[in-house]
User: Fold these one by one.
Assistant:
Number 1:
Amino acid sequence: ERLGYFKGVNVETPEVPGTDDQIDISFQVEEQPSGSISASLGFSQGYGLILGANYSESNILGTGNSLSLGVSFSDFQKSANFNYFNPYYTLDGISRGYSAFARQLDYDARNIARFTTDALGVGMNFGFPIGETRRISFGGLLEYTKITEGIFPAQEISAYLDENGEESINYKMNLSWRSTTLNRGIFPTRGHSQNLALMVALPGGDLQFYKVSYDAQVFFPLGNTFTLRLRSELAYGDGYGDTELFPFYEHFYAGGFGSIRGFENSTL
């Protein structure tokens, strides 16, 4: 059930005829759709007009590998993404994934600040199981970023660009630890999950900075109908080495329907 490939799983353990110390284990599973092709047209208060198309498959030809391709267009974001992931790259459960993206973000349209960023990136990541419910992942990302000031930008933006320039190439390293005991891969009703992640822009690139984040959630079943979910997010970022100012476009933002209600999108 944790794989997310099956709608239902039933396990039976009949005794082996003629023995008193052996059983057979019989699994009956009902698969559920693991892929989708979608197109979207909509309007959001936070993003304006939204156009998009996406293809995703989490179980390519029954291999367990996943692939996703997507494009998105809105007042805030124009992007194209590619992701491929093999959860069992080796027999020991080591995973390997590839990713590539191109995106343009207009932060003025998101009510954040008056600037835009154009970015290109390619990356690779690996994962190692350290227990039945815990996993360590690490990887690298090569990213190019160009920043364009808008009309009347904040002084912080102008000061940062005067010191670091409009364009940068960074070598990012990612390290994360994840633990999950959720009973299902989709719509869990009990268990918990935790994720601790570190991202470092390494020396050798144009900028040096880091971000640390932690998120957790826990599910409590309330009878057979309802489930109580509690969640938290913590994050911190700063520059180091030759980068005195933490890149303003890497800041954290909150507010809005999916974050903190009562505040406009990205006002915190």
Number 2:
Amino acid sequence: MLETALRLFSEKGYHSVTMHEIARSSEFAIGTLYKFFRSKEDLYRSLMTDLADSFHSALRSALD
């Protein structure tokens, strides 16, 4: 789900992507998507947090 959301947000921008589009593209039912994320904002926040954590880990490894 998150990989699909990242791809769609990158291609179309946050405001142009819908939760239905993310669900359809990731081959999940819309209810499943809402089971994990309350809203598109919640999904986006989770995605950005995961990306920031990955970046932080990579940066820490490079500095060590």
Number 3:
Amino acid sequence: YRLKMQIVLIGLFGLLLVAVAGVTGLKATLSFVFTAMVLWKLFFPLLLRGYAPLATGLAIVALLTAVITFSVGGLNRRGIATFAGSMLGVLLTCGLAVRFARAFDLHGAVRPFAETLPYSGYYNLHLTDIFIASVFIASSGAVMDLAMDIAASMDEIKRKHPGIDLLEHVRSGLRVGRAVTGTMTTTLLLAYSSSQITMFLLFMAKGLPAANILNAPFVAAEILNILVGSFGLVTVAPFTALIAGLLYRFERREQRLESEAL
């Protein structure tokens, strides 16, 4: 019976977040619980009822991104820039996932237990679309994280240097994005490849050539997962930097007009 220890572990994680980040950590804990409940009680049941996986997935990601970014970052320019940059990255990831899933000739059965679902009575599930939705949903957390880093950095830069011009402000955000993007893409590689470590061990134990391993549908699915998710990560940096720069530029213009009116 593992539920008691799972509750203990979740409680320790929440206490650690609050101890390290204070009120922000409490908001992050609540966001963590909210995300789990939305997936468990809303997204998964909607898929089982036959709702379109791509549209439903994008709607769920938009909901989670809005709740998390505005609760943690605040309902302000920083939060708006984080939300807009994140959603642009997610939309790009979704489009690339659709395009390359077809180019790779992949189907939804590359996910564990996917083939069991039709035999359980769910014949009308769009398994391929569910697989594609899993690609951009899996990367949405990292995309959101990177967008928040850049938006928060640009907010701090604007506070310290209110007179900074638009181009220099955007360049500063891009410089922050370059530093974070390099490590974040490696994070996706480690996370996805380690989750399938036994599969890679089996293929290598069988002595299969590298070309055969990379051409296997399960491996090709992970390659698509990693690279398409990385596209979203790389592009969210300029998206967020540009949006934040424009938002703070408009703020400065509004303040100037107000001062002239007075």
Number 4:
Amino acid sequence: MKAQIHNFAVWINETRPAALKENFSSLLTNSGFEVLEVVEKHFEPYGYTALFLLSESHFAIHTFPEHKETYIELSSCVLEPFNKFIKNYEK
């Protein structure tokens, strides 16, 4: 088996930490990923970063509220949940 990492990254308009955490936690688990841990950092006066440690790799959220944008990135070494995540995200 060849070592391979599948990547998906996109900018979105949602910047509220609670909404991001809830929506992407659900999307990850519904896609078949196992979330092992979530590490979060809230910045002052604003901003939020979260890293979801997955058994299959990781998912990151970086908000830029001053620009009304958030960058999300999924890296996965397992193709099936990765493809499900993209399909479910696009809905």
